[in-house]
Amino acid sequence: MSEQIQQTPNLYALLIGIDCYMPNRLPNGRYYKSLGGCVRDINYVEAFLKQMRKVPETQILKLTASTSHNNEYEPLEPSNELPTRKNIVDSFRKLGEMTPEGAQVYIHYSGHGGRAKTVFKDIKGEDGIDEGLVPTDLGTSEGQYLRDLELAQLLKELVDKKLTVTVVLDCCHSGGATRGEAEIRGMDVVDDKPFLTGQELVAPLETLAATWKSLTEQGTRGLKASGLPESRDYVVLAACRPNEEAYEYAFNRETKEFNGALTYWLLDTLRQQNPGQTYKDLYDRINAKIHSQFPQQTPMLMGEGNREIFGSEFAETVYAIPVLKVELNAATGETQAVIGAGQATGVGKGAEFAICPRGTIDLTKKESRVAIASIIQRGATESLCKLEPIEGKELKVEQGDQAVLISASVNLVKTVWLDELPPEQLPSQVYANQKAALQAIEIALKENGWVELATKKDEDGDPIDYQVRLNAAGEYVICDRTGVPFKNIQPAIKIGEPNAPARIIKRLVHLAKYHATAELDNTDRDSPLAGKLAVEWLGTSDSYELGDPIPKKSQLKLFDDSSKPKVKVSEHIFLSIRNNSSQPLNIAVLNLESNWTIEQIHPKREGELFITLDPGQKEDIPLQPTIEGDGNQVENTVKVFAAVGSTNFRWLELPSLDEQLKSKGFATRAGNPLEALLAAIDDEQPRNRKLTVAASPSREWTTKQVTLTITK
Question: What residues contact 604, with CB distance under 8 A and at least 6 apart?
């Protein structure tokens, strides 16, 4: 095992992080303000590459601009290490020169994204827009955007040298104000900064035009990340769509250290990487994680999503962390372990590890695991873990055993922040009653087990899940962690109404259960069911009626954009489910509605728990969408579960928001830990803070979800 860990992957990297933006001014007087988590992003990525991928320091180029406590507009680094436009371009070229043919290239940018009037009018037209990266020196006389045509050209030069290129862009090109502790990496201003005399493009204009034309002729339907049209020559993972914001957030509320949401969940997922994992696998988890925290941010994946992460030509290795100590907690009688990982390696409290005996050759085999360890106290390089036994095995962990990072648990208990607004944001009468109204919520919180008060010194270091505040009408408003109000929380509840605090708590509990189901996933790539459940929307029909034969796909109306399917309430839409595994699977389909209801929609009759699909068998299901209320458009999620055993997924059903939540009281069959896992969401009081998905029989179930937009 030690020989495998010491192997050096053929990987070269360029890392760019910009917290400090020198003084700059845009046309409307706004400016690119300094950020707080970009350099930290880059330092964490660098640590991951060195420690987990064993990339030598000589194969990593890094440009950073850190803010100074004395002068926020004066970066700490020397000029030759700053991410100025010139240094960024020079580093791209240096990366190409130092990387041998056939090697992997990884480029990671964290900072502002910008939009400017095009300087390529012959290519984009008089009203064209250039999108691109914002260097730290934009506001200087030499400063200039690294524009989309130029970035595309720099990437093409790397590809032309037969390098396998991966690009991560944690920035955005639109923005606006946001409440809470999140910051946005971009603005909604179109700059008019021209190229000045003496400034040069990265290549002659005709070369840039040829590169741009070759990319835009590939038919990308306008999907762009940082202005780049889609290319099959390289993989691009971008933080958001062009009209959205990319957030950075204090994920650790204790230290208040900011990270970009994309970078945070990228590293969290990469640390769990299993052999054969693709960029599509990576994207699916990142997208789900970011959407659960920032619904208005949608990451984008372009290029060959089925390419293995860091290239298929390398034998993927599962890197293990040593168990340094095993001890008995005298107070609780529980066995605990200290492992050699901590803040320096980017793991946090609650992270889970599979423990395998010392000398285990193949750490990917689930049969090798003897325990699950979850961090309960994190240090800089060492962490204390609680140990849980594997079902049917003796809990026997020894010093020198190996810990492998696996999927994290689903948090059941959610945290809520009571947000007091300043007097200028509320009418005087509402402001006068604000403190008492929020204190009433704090008191009511003590009577439930699903939602608890978040404080600025949250000992778990976890981010908040919800915010509650008052609006100008004196109504309670429930928001996501960034302060954006949730939709479809109706009717409004005013302070002073009978049982108002208790009603707000009921809504918070309902949201906690809804989000626990939405986050429930099986990321065990070692499972024989991994990737074996195929789910897709086939198309729509406005002539189909229930009872008719299911139309062939050629007879259906296809979607204008298959990545964002839309259906009208007057149409039927068809969901296709296929079992690509080698064993029969029991299938249940749940609908997570925009009004916070969860309902099993197939099989629908209450007495039926599932349908069974044999290996290779598929079923096409007709569904007719509806919209409740006055809205003209809603987003819907359909989640398909598949299990080897006869599991009851109706545990996860929820009524509409203000209906009474009642435990279903289903009998859990002895020896079915999967049903016990699902029943935890149904409990009136969760027995544990987390669903330990990793300790469940992950070889025996899987899930996949698809979304659609319903319009009138």
Answer: none
Domain with CATH 2.40.30.230 in the chain: 321-406
> What value, to the nearest 5°, has the Cα angle with vertex 459 and ends 455 and 465?
55
- Under 8 Å between Cβ of 373 and 389: no
**In angstroms, how far apart are the furthest CA atoms of the chain?**
78
Q: Which DSSP category does 6 fall into?
A: H
Number of residues that make up the chain: 712
Report the b/e string of 540-560 with b at 16+ CB within 10 A: bbeebeeeeebbeeeebeebe
DSSP classification of residue 330: T
CATH no., domain 414-517: 3.40.50
- Is the bond leading into 491 cis (omega within 30 degrees of zero)? yes
Token pair listed for 167: 């690009």
Q: Which helix (H) or strand (E) covers residue 190, if one does?
A: strand 186-191
Alpha carbon distance 509, 201 (integer Å) = 56
Cα 329 from Cα 428, distance rounded (Å): 54
- H/E stretch holding 508: helix 500-519
15-46: per-residue pLDDT in tens? 999 999 998 887 777 788 888 889 999 999 99
HSE (CB half, 13 Å, CA atoms) of 535?
20
Residue in the structure block whose two tokens are 């002073």: 496
Residue 601's nearest CA partner among 585, 572, 622, 584 is 622
| Cβ atoms within 10 Å of 74's Cβ, excluding its own | 12
Of 252, 250, 311, which Cα lies nearest the Cα of 277?
Answer: 311
> Closest by alpha carbon to 251, among 171, 348, 169?
348
Residue 606 has pLDDT above 90, yes or no: no
Rounded to whole angstroms, how far apart are CA atoms 132 and 119? 12
pTM over 0.70: no
Question: Which residues, other chains included, contact 410 with Cβ-Cβ below 8 Å and sequence gap of 6+?
Answer: 516, 519, 520, 521, 690, 691, 693
CATH fold, domain 8-302, is: Rossmann fold (3.40.50)
Residue 644 near residue 700, CB atoms below 8 Å: yes
Give the amino acid at 360: T
Query: Residues 3, 304: contact at Cβ < 8 Å?
Result: no
Domain 321-406, CATH: 2.40.30.230
pLDDT tens digit sequence for 436-484: 999 999 999 887 778 888 875 444 445 688 999 999 999 999 999 888 8
- What pLDDT shows up at residue 8? 43
Closest CA to 83 of 14, 175, 26: 14
